[in-house]
Specification:
Blueprint: H1 23-28, E1 35-38, E2 44-46, H2 54-62, E3 66-69, E4 77-79, E5 84-85
Antiparallel strand pairs: 1-2, 1-3, 3-4, 4-5
Amino acid sequence: MAAKQCAHLDQIREVTPSAEGCEECLKTGDEWVHLRLCRSCGHVGCCDSSKNRHATKHFRASGHPVISSFEPGEDWSWCYVDELFL
């Protein structure tokens, strides 16, 4: 049986991060645990371990499927739609 593959690799772009931290948390003065970068538009949001989960909220609002870790030393991506690490 073949391993499931991501069908959204064509939506990954070279992006410029929108902020140095979670956009929404910076505006409200909240804190985050880890940061995620939207690979479609560059939105920087906080991870699901953070209380606001802005990266996932951005996915639900925009439909942009792939995020990457925006943490130093981490080199991984995740597709929300296919639920796969890339």
